[in-house]
Amino acid sequence: VKGMIFKTPSQWVTRGIRRRLLALGLALLALMLFSYTIANTIYSRGRVRIAQSQIQMEVATRVASEIEGFVQGKVTRLRDLASAVSLYDPGVVEQRLLGLLLLKNDAAFTEIAVLDATGKETAKISERKVYLPSDLAERSDTAVFTRSVQGDTYIGPVYTSDRAEPYITVGVPIQLRPRQVIGVLRGEINLKFLWQAVGEIKFGKAGYAYVVDRGGGLIAHKDASLVLSQQDLAHVYGVRKFLESGGAIDRNPAGEGEGLRGEPVLSTFVPVSGLDWAVVLEERAAVALADLKRLERYTLFLLVAGLFIGGGVIVWASDKIARPIRELHRGAEIIAAGNLQHRVAVETHDEIADLGQQFNRMAAELQNSYAALEERVAQRTRDLSVLYEITAAVNQSIELEPILQVVVRKITDIFCSDATRIFLFDHGGNNVELQASFDTRPEFRLGVRSFKRGQGIVGRVAETAEPLVFENTLTDPRYQAYSESRAMRKAGYCFLAAFPIKARERCLGTLLLVGQFPRKFVLDEARLITSVAEQIGVAVENAELFRAVKAKSQELATLMEINKDLNREVLLPRIVYEARHILNVDTSIFRLVEGENLVLLSASEPAQDFSVQPKLSIHEGLTGEVVSQNRVVAVKKLLENNKLSEWQREALGRAGYRSFLGIPMRVADRIIGTLTVFSVEEREFQAEEILLMSAFADQAAIAIENANLFAEVKAKSVELEKANRELVEASRTRSGFMAAMSHELRTPLNVIIGNTELVQDGFFGDVTPKQREALDNVLRYSQILLKLIHNVLAMTRLEAKGMTMDVSTFHLEEIIGQVQTYAEHLNYNNKVELRWQVEKNLPPLTTDALKLEEILQNLLGNAFKFTPRGGIEVGVRDLPAEGRIEFRVSDTGIGIEADVLDRIFEEFYQHKEAHTGTYSGVGLGLSIVKKYLDLMGGDIRVESQPQEGSTFTITLPYTV
Amino acid sequence: MKALRGLFAGLLLAVLIPSPGQGQKVTRIEALVSNNQFLPAIEGFRKRMAELGYKEGGSIEYNVHNAVGNSAALNMMAVKIVESKPDVIVTSSTTATEPIAKATAGTAIPVVFLSAGNPLKFVHSYSSSGNNLTGISTSSIDLTGKRMELLLELVPGAKKVITLHNPTGANYKANLAATREAGKQLGVDLVEINVNSRDELVRAARARLFTREVGDGIVLAPDGIINSGVDEIMPYINREELPSIAVNSEFVKAGALATYASDYFDLGEQGAALVHKVLSGMKPTDLPIEQPYKLKLVINLKTARVIGLKIPRAILLRASEVFE
After folding, report:
1. Most buried of A630, A818, B16, B101, CB within 10 angstroms?
2. Whole-model pTM?
3. ipTM higher than 0.95?
């Protein structure tokens, strides 16, 4: 896998030792440093917490004392006022003045009321309100009175005024002397001043204080908005501690919890003596513990630094220990890379040094083993090279002979023999015959070229498919036993090795190596020769297969080729020629079935004395049997066949034919003829040969049929061509005639129209109304006639010369003006209502203006022609999205039936009533329109309902 | 060498210390008053802001706009101020706050009014404005009764009291209701005189509408138009020996006999704390409308002498401030 590093076991071991040393050292170091850091942090936290709690307790106590002082101060002031008030009779001006002075001098007081011993207000003054004597009321049931009249000081709960400010009510007794209460003095104290006092309290870096009552309500805070929002603070950590304390002191000063603003704080509370309130101090934990955090960061830095320094020392120490091991590892890597001379040098004088020496010894042994292995590999490489060369030679060609020539030469060279020979079985497999031979000494060339199966050493090896090796024929007793001729020894060869040539377990022949001198033949050589012989076997088999494939493909090509020929004159001789060559016979004959006879069509090279009969009966002889019995007839011994008549036997015998094959030629199960072949050599036709011949006969039959059809079609084509030429000529003549006739008709008609107009205009004297009416009729019908002639002329021109265009750029208004004049002319008697809907500012057109005018005239002419009453509407509009102009001619005429809608553009097509004379015309108008539009890139569509009317819509591009 | 060292040190300082224009954001506060009488509120505000650490020319910049009694100019100034998108807008008086409240409606520009006689005209309640405004109620209208009570204390036996009103004024209805309520409560007849402009006010003074024949004393109303003409009408009033109760100590200093009201300078200082909270990130809607920390009884003894009135000792004892 690309990118992966594979390590040898030694790498793992070496690195593992170092890693373990490192890990252990670092773990111990980290444990030590972490333990120290944690202990130090815990200790520091404790110290900081104690310091924080001391500060908070100190500040909270001071603040509580100040608040107590504030309230007590107000109570004292009220008591002083009570003492002063007691000197005056209830309700006198002085009492009021004293109250007003208190309001002036102490802004915390906003209202003062003096109550007599019965609870009735005798004086009431306010900072903001006007109190008149009539406003004084009975207050004996109020808590402030009932408590204060007992001689106690009353401090009420905190309440909020209509202006959202906190107040408390304070009541003190008015006494003449101790325990003689003559009334009660009530004061309303605005605690907003307490807010200021509390708001100014700061401690630490961001510490602040606030005051809460026993209900968890906020009484004072530097942020008045918090007080006025009257939140329930029971969930705030410091407040919760106070509510849960039951009036006791804070047992967990500077504890951490959620603060007033929802963030973690260090909080302490101190109850305000005598008021059921508590001062709560908070400082954001992040700020309060900032020094601690810094200390922790510093400690962490020291920890990391310690880890780095300690880690460095451990790395150095572990490296010192692992270095000799790394040296061994490096040596192993070098040796693994192929340098077997390398030796390691470890001089630690310990066990690792011993290991190094053993390693060096092992390397030396490895070097020796590797050298031996290399020698074996070289030998194997040589063998493979030989095999490769032989294989390459075998694969160079599929022609056997040159392959074998090359192979024997190479074997001689490679195995250092004096001669090499290859014997292969003949076609019948009875003999092995010499196919290729190479001799280094031509004078010793072997005379024997063929051995029977099992004969001699060559024949024996070919038969048994077992090799025979004689290292010295002079001494080897087996040679005496196996060899029949001793030819080898006589030729001077002492060494002989014969190996079977095999392919797919079939023995094909013998490979023979001979040498002049005795030699040892080692097992590797035998194995290599066996492989070479197998390669030769492959080559032989390939060559056989190639021959077979080649023959087969030639046959198939013949079959395919025969079918391509359509010329009978060529086809017939070819069929008999190919039939003769397919089976390699001497004569082939092709006959065609005609009724009860077989007629000779073609014959190939019959024997000199053999006369082929031009006609045979299908009930006669072997050829007749092919047809009458619809089967293949194959006869090995022709002359002995009893179906031959005497004269046939005689004639065939004279010609020397011995075997016969007759094949029926079929086309779709119909026999059209026979293909018969004769062989001078007596032979039995094999099934494959008969199958091949049958296929050929079928192909030939199809080819004959095709040739017949082709001849027939060809004859028809000639006839059609002739007829077509005649038609073209006739059409041209008709067009010429029509053009000439139209021209000749138009000239006098123009004279008629011109003169009629002159008469009508009074050129030849006055015209009576009746004459004028008659002249109008003459002119009108002349115009219609002229239009008809014009259309005929246009069509004939189109047919004769094709169409051309006279393109120009013009404004549609000109054309529409012309068409409007034409339409008015047609509507001379106002029989229909004619409406025009032409858009303004139509773009100019670049096309053939006259043709467009003619198109519109034709459409209008048709509309008038087929609209006896009702209306005709002509619409012209721009289609900018398509870049075209649309023209529409709608009428309320007789309409067109749906089944003829697609025929109205055909030449000379006319409405069915046209032939009755009701609607005159020649049926060319729409045909011309269609042709013009095709030329001008336009299109036309028609929508029509019988008896309701038709709408012809054409569109033309801005530019043709 | 020393010179080189000095140059180097200077360059280093120039690089290290950012100039105010570069690094520090300058908070811009636009202040709008309808009349000169409210300028002490702005002074008190600036003084307390400086004490809170906002140094002018450093972290804060003030632009004070004074409409000098011109209501059209006031409206125009209000629009311009809001268009300039300042960090905070500070106003004094209901008259100046109203156009600002209207122009900032729907925006997040915080507005702190240092004084407003009737803040409920533009805030939802005293505990929360419910919008971008917060500030201090002068309690001026609340104290209408106390001021009339003061007049009765100064002029015992007074039966008819002249009251001045501006029907087009921002607090007209509230003023009128409070005045009538006080008159009813204290059992005096009111001579209500309406003026629509400063000119009308002055014309009324010249036409001798403020005399002892018309009333036993005059109580001025907390209204921008009336306030703008106090300086001019006081000589007429004092010439007629008519005891006058003003709506703030500035007018007492200018010649009115007495007042019972909050002090604008004090309100400005109180408002600075609110602006400080706003600049600290609090939203005006979370800051309750505050009441004045202190109300002052102010007496002008000189005027008393001029109009031949002896101030009772009991009142002098109560006075927070006495002009001699």
Report:
1. B101
2. 0.47
3. no
